[in-house]
Amino acid sequence: MTITLSRPELILKLIVEQYLLDGQPVSSKVLADNAQLAVSSATVRNTMMQLEQQGFIRSPHTSAGRIPTTSGMRLFIDKMLQLQPLTTLWASELQRKLTPQLPVSLLCQQAGQLLTNLTGFVTIISAPKAGGRMVRQIDLVRLASDRLLLVVIDEDGDILHRVLHCETAIDNNILSKVLCLLNAALGGGGQWQDGIARLGSIVRGESGVCQQLLQKVLGQLSLDELQQHQPLIFGQHQLLLTPEYQQNTALQQVMQMLEQPEGLVRLLHNITQDDTPKLLLGKESGYVELANVSVIAQRYQAQPARFIALVGPRRMNYARLIPLVEACARQLNLNLNRR
């Protein structure tokens, strides 16, 4: 689709495209030499002055070159950006790595790692078990006289398996009793969190070796439940390697935010209320820590609400990356609906 642009809009478009390409201020001479304009250098300079007065471009230092502001980038993306079709390579990678046979947690992990590998940016995925989960099966398997394997399977097929090291040997009577108590607390398709609460009450009523073993199981279940409700974050180290990070210490604040992501997760949940991709440019997020990065976010499931997001420098290739995040969300949604 051909977009008709005014001369100021075309000049802004050329400035943004060149800036996204090399990150350098764009001079009026470079623009005047562009065949798309066919105007004099004086006309270009006057138009650039007009764009600067309107807040769409700015001078980073005393040179004659200009770079786009957040407002200029927003106008470019909303009106001038033409999204590119997903590459064949990326499409095949999404289909190959994100298969419906994978349990939900592993599917989310695969999606996050794949998106980071393809882009080199940070990927954030909402907690795999954001809506709670049901226990389908729980078992204790003897490995040795003082070692047991705890196995818990939820309704999505995700498996928790942990080796429990006991201070004393566990005889068959104790093992049978503990297993019965675990099934009483967590069996029958109950909610994981409710089962943990019931198990806590049972632990307080027991004593000796039986109580010690139940406490070990309770600790593992509680830890796994906590982890399952944390967002998955991939590629933090990738951000450290970008030229922008090396030149701008403000990006170190982004790393701090990723280490304590509660505020960022709330933001992403709030903006992904429908099935269209969302793009936040720097200060648009309302967080000073994100002033120097962009975020592309997309919801991939409504109930429970789940999102996937890509975080990177402002100089992203938006034309390629927005369709990639959309396609990844679509593939996740398709696989989850097939269950």
From TrEMBL:
Residues 109-322 form the Heat-inducible transcription repressor HrcA C-terminal domain. Pfam families: HrcA. Negative regulator of class I heat shock genes (grpE-dnaK-dnaJ and groELS operons). Prevents heat-shock induction of these operons. Belongs to the HrcA family. It comes from Rheinheimera muenzenbergensis. It comes from the Bacteria. Keywords: Repressor, Stress response, Transcription, Transcription regulation. InterPro entries: GAF-like_dom_sf, HrcA, HrcA_C, WH-like_DNA-bd_sf, WH_DNA-bd_sf, WHTH_transcript_rep_HrcA_IDD. This is Heat-inducible transcription repressor HrcA. Gene3D superfamilies: 3.30.450.40, Heat-inducible transcription repressor hrca homolog, domain 3, Winged helix-like DNA-binding domain superfamily/Winged helix DNA-binding domain. The gene is hrcA.
